[in-house]
Amino acid sequence: MPLTAPQLDRAIGAVLASAAGDALGSQYEFGPALDDAVTPVFGAGQFGHGVGEWTDDTSMAVPILDVLARGDRLEDAASREEIVGRWIGWAQTAKDVGAQTRAVLARIPQPFTEADVLAASRAEHERAGRSGGNGALMRTGPLALGYLDRPATELAAVAEAISKLTHWEQDSASACILWSAAIRHAILTGELDVRAQLSLLPAADAARWGGLIEEALMPGAHPRDFMPQNGWVVRAFQGALAAVVGASSLVDALERAVRGGADTDTVAAIAGALGGAVWGASGLPGEWVGVLHGWPGYSARDLRGQVEKVVSAGAL
Fold it and tell me: How many domains does the chain have?
């Protein structure tokens, strides 16, 4: 049976709301936390992105979405190599590329195989001593779409594989597994339940992340609480979760994420992927959707069309 209308709305929401959060947070990036009385608005980004233009967060998710829309599988090394190749091409003219991602892409030889990509990712991790930035988590929105009719364990394996292409650290992989699986669960059921995804992690990781999740679920928790170091995948995860859990609507979730300050576009993009999967694309104002655009020349309509192709290819 195909997706129900609400499920399809939530599937589209996982991508559109992530792009909307990305674009909304762009002009506030690197800024202070904002008071609840402040209503974030679309504006020119810190790196020159236009009003309603998404940044690297969504641009890196688009190749993943496009591969799935074509009906290809992310389990295939050829698919992952294509995604990396498109990232490399995008990065040559992008207005902004995350430091960790840029460093890894610069290490990849031409031509390359996935083994070369993983070697570059690991080498950069070893050089820096860490690779737990939020740059892999920000691009998870489309991942679940290809696994709505498959076991969550398959999605977890793919989420880890895609994460390690640029972020070798296990924190990044664990965050991507949990977030992708929570998005899948929300699309299918309309429920927000990140705790239930802990079973996909090894026991030791599950115990650690269980504690981190509880911190974000504390009554009154706000993305501002996790602003320090929210370029780190753990704090970005917690900030985005606090934004969604404490919200009354999808717009509220995205605005809360932006009010958290610092890495606003990325935290809002992460929050948007899960929030969109909970409330659906119908929760976005039409004026927001109308201005959304970005690399590679896509509009919100293009993103919606690609999502519809994905779910049609893997209908339940």
Answer: 1
